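example protein:
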Amino acid sequence: MKPVFLSIAFMSWVTFAFGQGAVGPVRFQPGSDVLLRAQSPSPGPGATDKGNKEVIGQGLTMLHTGNPNSLFWKENMDISGAGQLVNADFLWDGSSKILYAFGRITLRCTRGFKTDDLNVLLGIYGKRNFLSKPVGSGWWLVSLEKDQCDAPQAGLYGCKFSQSGQQLACGRMELNPGINDMEVVDAVRF
């Protein structure tokens, strides 16, 4: 009986320790409004600065789609799902079928109570996207300095997420220029 009890106790500990899901460097989960927008990626009634661009973001959180005909607009939206409205930038790349959103948001580090104003860039896969990813799934990232929110080195950090916004994999991220998509290149536990 003791070996069975120890095995069950050990498996329970492993499930608790490693089954918590992926955790990013900051407390962020894409808002439901922005996830739904990927299903019908067009400016809302209050959108401004409508036009065509191929670039979204600022600094290290900037992405070039390579498509100068991508639809661009600005819109007040809660992209973080925390009730924090921001004047977000949106870019719909109709050739790859990916909706990008960018905004500056006050976010709390995963560990502790420190907050920072950070640029957040999201990529959300739309219907018939060229990567065949589930609609509404995607990734988000922020640019961090070394030791900011426990980042082991300066760079881009974020998470891949499911259609429901659940974080699947988190860590240091890099752009794969061949497909204009972000990848977790170094899994970091925050």
User: Anything to note?
Assistant: The radius of gyration is 18 Å. The CA atoms of residues 104 and 118 lie 5 Å apart.
